[in-house]
Amino acid sequence: MSYSEKVLDHYENPRNVGSFAKDEEGVATGMVGAPACGDVMKLQIKVGRDGVIEDARFKTYGCGSAIASSSLVTEWVKGKTIDQALEIKNTQIAEELALPPVKIHCSILAEDAIKAAVADYKKKHEL
Amino acid sequence: MLKFPIYLDYSATTPVDPRVAAKMIPWLTEHFGNPASRSHAYGWDAEKAVEEAREQVAALVNADPKEIIWTSGATESDNLAIKGAAQFYKGKGKHIITVKTEHKAVLDTVRELERQGFEATYLDVREDGLIDLEAFKAAIRPDTILVSVMFVNNEIGVIQPIAEIGEICREKGIVFHVDAAQATGKVDIDLATLKVDLMSFSAHKMYGPKGIGALYVRRKPRVRLEAQMHGGGHERGLRSGTLPTHQIVGMGEAFRIAREEMAEENTRIRGLRDKLLKGLSDIDATYVNGDLEHRVPHNLNISFAYVEGESLIMAVKEVAVSSGSACTSASLEPSYVLRALGRNDELAHSSIRFTIGRFTTEEEIDYTVALLHQKIGKLRELSPLWEMVQEGVDLDTVQWAAH
């Protein structure tokens, strides 16, 4: 399996790795995937009072493409409102990282992680 | 001086030993004759070289040279043995027994025979990777004609109880095939005492060239096969095709070297493997796959929990290792061999097979141990599963959103 330079860059130097405290103000968590499938992504967003995502963190168990996809979305969601974040599509992630067809599911998982994190935020804030 | 990437994938293939390569070259250039040419010295020379190599291959496994048939490799040998025996003996019955952890060259061949109307039993293995002899006996039917069990597993290196299986098969009059591609040069094989009827060999797993192998076909008691390759009637009609003299000479030389050096070499390699095992054992949550006692000296297969296998292989790109067999590494499926041991998908996903060989040095092992410590630490920092386990979450109780 050969990886694109962008995948390798995110994999070697993952952005925004880590965790926020779950009860911190404005923090929401999305966890998607399953160990049995070989990928689990945890994406956390920290949303300001104005509804803009101020910061994001991730941890991913998965292949290089899964790690790169989640690293990339932590960069992309920052500065977006939660509704704008929902507009990020897996095809954009796959295109940016030049994922081969067998790795498209990684980008789908990253999109799902955003949806799950936003859903958690909406649930917590009864939006 | 370390040369990167460090090669620790000797069960995928080995470099050709320089002594083997040197021996092969004249048979490509000067002595290019067709061993089947009976009318001139070019042919006679080549035939003599082929027969000398046949003796060298036979000598390693204590067989008669007349029992060795040249093929293109272990896959072809497996096909010829299994299809050839099943088709020859189909009048006696149609049931075949093999094992779930066999190489695909055996499993897919048996599947093909099922499509042709044969019936097959795929035996489970125990948690240690070995077959349960009682379960094997129970699987034998009155119409069982063929049993195929590998000597040494390619992924986890465990050695199956071939002598015991052979006794049972002989007593019942069942043809017994053994894929020994991973066994020659690693374990002692004595076909004068083992009750094995057919045995597959490969050259490139033991410092010979790719593209050449052999099949042992027992003469006493005689085992019959239907040929799968028809043509000039080479190899007593069992495998037609012009013999590749240079490849055969290479395989012979590789087997000669193995016979002379394997005892000493395996002691050295076992020392390196044990050093690697010791060095990796102090990483948290690691699991050795397969029995350590009944195992070839050069194999170590370990799962590192909470780290995904493909990213692990990517992280340790300074070492050339595999997450299973090279034949399946292109697929995203976890190893079917580890699944058969009862390893869950997650541990099956996070396994690495290290296979050490003739040219591995202690320095390379030291480097590998240090690299693994560093990279597994890094990947676990990235792993949400590791984080949950550190927080005391039992992962088995988590409701995962399947996708």
How would you characterize this protein structure?
The complex is a heterodimer of chains A (127) and B (403). By secondary structure, chain A is an alpha+beta fold. Chain A has a single domain, classed as Sufe protein. Chain: A. Chain A is 43% helix and 20% strand. Chain A has a three-stranded antiparallel beta sheet. In chain A, strand 1 and strand 2 (39-47) form a beta hairpin. In chain A, helix 4 crosses helix 5 (104-124). Chain A is globular. In chain A, 48% of the residues are buried. Chain B has two domains: 6-12 and 262-390, Aspartate Aminotransferase, domain 1, CATH 3.90.1150.10; 18-258, Aspartate Aminotransferase, domain 2. Chain B is built from twelve helices and twelve strands. In chain B, strands 2-8-7-6-5-3-4 form a seven-stranded mixed beta sheet, with helices on both faces. Chain B has a three-stranded antiparallel beta sheet with strand order 9-10-12. In chain B, helix 1 runs antiparallel to helix 7 (245-281) and helix 3 packs parallel to helix 4 (104-115). The longest helix of chain B is centred in the middle third of the chain and has 37 residues, at 245-281. Classes of the chains: A alpha+beta (127), B alpha/beta (403). Chains A and B meet through strand 1, strand 2, strand 3, helix 2 and helix 5 of A and helix 8, helix 10 and helix 12 of B.
